[in-house]
Amino acid sequence: MICPPYRHWSKTHIHDAFGDSHIQLFVSDGTHTIVDDFIFYVLPVNDPPVISSIDDLWLREDTDSETVFLTTFDVDSNRLSVMAVSSDENIIPSK
Question: Which of 23, 44, 55, 82 lies in disulfide reach of 18, CB 3.0 to 4.6 Å?
Fold first, then answer.
């Protein structure tokens, strides 16, 4: 059997993992085996934070304020800040 001389090797790294790994590739014709090696580098990226889904809120006029409960998460363990901006400052001021 004649094999084409150009081959490829592909590997997907583990999600949200980064660093470097020493890779060895072995090629054999059934009698002889050769090995080549290289370093596989996976660079870190700053993933975006995640916020929980928030349902629309209903509040009667002249009622006290409403608390919005939410969950935030950052896979990179970055410190998160939360800011709210109102589309109508006459109803809900942003500050």
Answer: 44
Please say whether the beta carbons of 15 and 30 come within 8 A.
no
d(CA 73, CA 53): 12
pLDDT in tens, 9-52: 788 878 888 999 999 999 898 999 999 999 999 999 888 999 99
Number of H helices, E strands in the chain: 0, 4
b/e string for 59-95 if b means 16 or more Cβ within 10 A?
eeeeeeeeeeeeeeeeeeeeeeeeeeeeeeeeeeeee
pTM: 0.54
